[in-house]
From TrEMBL:
Every DNA polymerase III beta sliding clamp N-terminal domain range: 1-120
Organism: Aureimonas populi
Organism domain of life: Bacteria
Name recorded for this polypeptide: Beta sliding clamp
Record keywords, A-Z: Cytoplasm, DNA replication, DNA-binding, DNA-directed DNA polymerase, Nucleotidyltransferase, Transferase
Amino acid sequence: MHILIERSNLLKSLTHVHRVVERRNTIPILSNVLLRTESGALRLKATDLDIEITESVPATGEREGGTTVPAHLLYDIVRKLSDGAEVKLSTNAEGTQMTVASGRSNFRLQCLPEADFPDITAGQFTHSFQLKASELARLIERTQFAISTEETRYYLNGIFLHTIDVDGAPRLRAVATDGHRLARAETDAPAGSEGMPGIIVPRKTVGELQKLLGEAEDEILVELSDSKIRFTLSDIVMTSKLIDGTFPDYQRVIPTGNDKALTLDRAVFASAVDRVSTISSERGRAVKLAVADGQLTLTVNSPDAGTATEELAVGYEADSIEIGFNARYLLDITGQLSGEEAVFMMADPGSPTLIKDGADEGTLYVLMPMRV
């Protein structure tokens, strides 16, 4: 293997692929990135056995071949090379070392055989469709904060992606919940997604996909089966295993009879919650919402620090109510709303509250109350 490649191109690709590599591995080959030269390009591949990312980048090759080198080490080396530099990658005859040379800098890295590198992309994909990168990014952004981190309920450790018929129109829906809050977002179902199995995309995959979508502008290709999903964004291909579990029937926890409608300015409300929750020293401290006669009073009581209150003018015509919520959860949800107004549909202090986005009918949130 002997190639020349621009430092900026190599760094960009390494940035994409090296992130899936865990810094601590019991299997040495999983710490490495696979580099293979083929027909005027360098293909990079990295995996943690659950996610695999490959990317091709233009390169000038004198001798084709492949090897694997430590991913984070190579990334750090290339990151510290001079801007605009050209990087020469070459392996020795035995394939045990790779030289990284640029200007007066020269590094020799230990290699592991390409043949030992695992491949998780085998298998057939039963469904495929194309979706705008911006739409998939929106589905993820609106729901990913509610993904559970509790490993015992592993089936909640991802976003549930499925199609559903809404008033005769097929919709692609994303749902996430941690048992305390639920986030749901949807978009028009793209051609080819009809009949797709309901799948749970793991939290780590969601995070990596979110970073890649931030750079994508065009449509992306989504292919999936019961056990895997693959995203193709131009020269980047990310394949991931899916969570093998059954997502709970989330429709059962979405309230339908809540009749107390509270309409408020999203930004003003979020700022007020942030201010009064400053007094709280414990994570998860509740903020009490007392609503009556078009006025909302926010209250936080802390045994250690004291009390904070703030009043807001709101739209409310139902019977007065006092209800408590986790301040952090309120801020998470209001941070995802795109409209100026938020609508809280409440029933009583002990029942879940439905939160709607004034500018996005396809998005809704459910928040469980706290005792105050």
